[in-house]
Amino acid sequence: MLARLELGERDEVAVTEQLDHILQHFETLAALDTANVAPTAHVVDMTEAYREDVVTNLPAAEALRANAPARDGDFFKVPKIIE
Amino acid sequence: MDVTTLSIEEASALLASKQVSAVELTQAFLERIRATEDTVRSFITVSEDAALAQARRADERRARGETGPLLGVPVAIKDVILTKGVRSTAGSRILAEFIAPYDATVTQRLFEAGAVCVGKTNCDEFAMGSSTENSGFMATRNPWDLERVPGGSSGGSASAVAARQCLGTLGTDTGGSIRQPAAFCGVVGIKPTYGRVSRYGVIAYASSLDQVGPMAMSVSGCAHLLGAIAGHDPYDSTSVRRPVPDYVAHLGAGIRGLRVGIPREYFVQGIQLEVEAAVRAAIGVLQNLGAQVSPVSLPHTEYAIATYYVIATAEASSNLARYDGVKYGLRLGEGESLLDMYRRTRAAGFGTEVKRRIMLGTYVLSAGYYDAYYLKAQKVRTLIRRDFEQVFAAHDLVVTPTAPTTAFRLGEKTSDPLQMYLSDIFTISINLAGLPGVSLPCGFDQQGLPIGLQIVGRPFEEEKVFQAAHAYEQATVWHERTVDSRGSGVENTE
Question: Which of B23, B124, B157, B386: disulfide with B55, CB 3.0–4.6 Å?
Fold first, then answer.
């Protein structure tokens, strides 16, 4: 549901079995004592990447809009969101 | 002379002495692609016209007095990397019609150096896979044996080099996706240190692991290509502000006196005997060249696959949320509710493996499971990093097999995802620790399939990895054997 994917019934059975198998493998991590270990989110020491507040992107609005699945002039067309 | 048999350096010398023009060289490779592509299938898009236009510009630049090792050199780029005005699909049906509105930084840097892009190479969808069979378009074949996979996810980039369809390629490597296909296809490929190369304009899979790197027939070719793409980029906050050494200048420094660790956990049951024998023989060669070899231990190696697949799928589920049918890409379910449009678009646009990873990632990040899976995996990642830090305190390099086996058969592992994941067992820890690692040919099995040797270095010490790889390459003959000498029939039959 949260993944925003639609699955057929037959797919659901096969996928559930495979995911169970993979999650079982993930369980092997539980064997390690990590009570006093800090998590690693990133391997390089990140520093704040400050820069001047100026626009540097080249104007490419039309190239971006050209990939729209549906458009109306300069606008992206989407289904009605507010009921 | 068949210019498609040259190395990057040889071709570069011919271009510099004007014995061949960039247009002639590009035409020769486009001809070679026409002669081999029906069987190998390296490319999602071959961009003939754009390539010839770039080649003409390279010749004009040279006529004006410009020089450079990549000026006029034909290359190909993995289809997860954006190339302005050219279709960039990431191997996914959801982006089948996507025209990149700008160049990735690595693309731009290659083009500034004068490289000519002949096309976009096939890969597992969103770089998720180890065989290129997860491409939404087609399976690429291994040029050494057309019944076998080229490896993945950068399979098309590796097969294009091995089949001499271009002189070098760019791939991406999140868990082994440059090194494993390089090993399977008998070419050289390097994953640089995390932060060494910009990912701006690279379609994201797992952002704390993804890195771009080159493939070529020789170590020196990779050194030239990495030198062109490496370095800080203000558009990627994970790219590091450090000077880029002259990798080519370091190549001849040799391996004498370098301390090389051999991790015992990488020679375990399940490894193909010929692979183990070839890698042990290669370690002997390094020793004869003056390296100080000693056994080391990386005790948390067995946890790397689980750690990787928790972290990578979590990051992927988040990164791929953007494919919703709104601003670009496929859209289905027009006229239905917004949620139905999302679900139908993603169900139709994504392949099975991508859906599997999105579901796994969504699960391990969900409330109630976050600590048990995602946070736990991040902590184990710390243990894996520490293993390497301890080894690298007393060693300059670590040497291992790149993959436990040579190239497997098409279809052999597609029904069992976990078996497929295990083919990355020797490459995955290097991504978790963010280290640079190269794969280069170190022999062939009894069926004539190439075997890869992996050399890993400290963070930002690519030059040492290259110099060791170059010393080994120059002392051995493996790189001289090509798919043509094998006669695997890469040329179209009709």
Answer: B23
